[in-house]
Design brief:
Layout lengths: L1 H14 L8 H28 L1 H13 L12 H30 L11 H34 L10 H18 L2 H10 L5 H6 L1 H15 L5 H25 L1 H10 L1
Length: about 260
């Protein structure tokens, strides 16, 4: 499978050799420009997030307070650290659509004109899928994890949940699921560049299932197989959504439509 993917990637690069090229210095200058704008958007997002830090920290702690617990300070700087960390993460999420647009602007010179029309569907779908991952994690995974880990497995113990450990756990679940829900977008680009197609993805779906369950085991906050399966099922559904997308945008399909038109 890996060899087949490598060959497909080489062919995709070869097919794009006819596109207008940019010199190395042009690429570096373009990268510098996009990085600069991304930093500006991130800074603005952090400032906005800081203005609402009280509400953000309350929302962060809610899955814990719902089971009768609170975060514990173990160092005098913990209260400042959580303020900085939440402002940075929330600011990055707010700035994400604008940063994604900068990424699109950077890669667009290597795309054909008909491919560039996907920019707005790409932007909207990327933000939507990330938001769905965050919602799934915040309203379903985290409350369930707190109940299982603290009230079920941890019922015989005293709890001292530190600010640093809880925020790390919270961000791992939320951001992990948000990024995982971007699987159809990854497949979209691989199919758009001709590296994979729907038939290839269906043929090797057993490897995808294995990879998905491994990822679910890593990011699942509970040690039981039921929790891992609950993580894996949405990813499996997203994989098959990606397969459908691959059938639609693969270059071979577009060529067939052009011939029949």
């Amino acid at each position: 499978m890996a060899t087949d993917l490598l060959d497909r990637a080489r062919n995709a690069v070869h097919d794009r050799a006819e596109l207008p090229g940019m010199s190395l210095m042009d690429h570096l200058e373009e990268l510098r420009r996009r990085l600069l704008w991304s930093v500006v958007y991130l800074a603005v997002g952090m400032i906005i997030a800081y203005a609402f830090h009280t509400h953000i920290i309350a929302a962060l702690q809610k899955p814990l307070t719902d089971v009768g617990q609170k975060m514990t300070m173990t160092h005098p700087t913990d209260s400042i650290n959580i303020l900085i960390k939440t402002s940075a993460i929330a600011g990055a999420i707010l700035a994400a659509p604008f940063i994604l647009y900068q990424i699109w602007l950077f890669i667009s010179p290597g795309m054909y004109a008909h491919e560039k029309r996907y920019v707005w569907p790409f932007m909207g779908t990327t933000v939507f899928l990330f938001a769905m991952g965050v919602v799934f994690g915040y309203f379903y995974v985290l409350p369930g994890a707190m109940k299982v880990l603290l009230l079920d497995f941890g019922k015989d113990y005293n709890h001292m949940i530190t600010i640093d450990e809880y925020t790390g756990f919270f961000m791992a679940v939320i951001l992990g699921l948000g990024i995982t829900f971007e699987l159809p977008i990854l497949i979209f680009f691989l199919a758009l560049f001709g590296i994979v197609d729907g038939k290839f993805l269906l043929k090797h779906f057993r490897y995808a299932i294995l990879a998905i369950f491994i990822i679910a085991a890593v990011i699942c906050p509970t040690p039981d197989p039921i929790g891992m399966t609950l993580f894996a099922l949405p990813m499996l559904g997203l994989y098959f959504v990606g397969v459908a997308v691959a059938f639609l945008v693969h270059p071979d399909r577009r060529k067939k439509k052009e011939k029949t038109a």
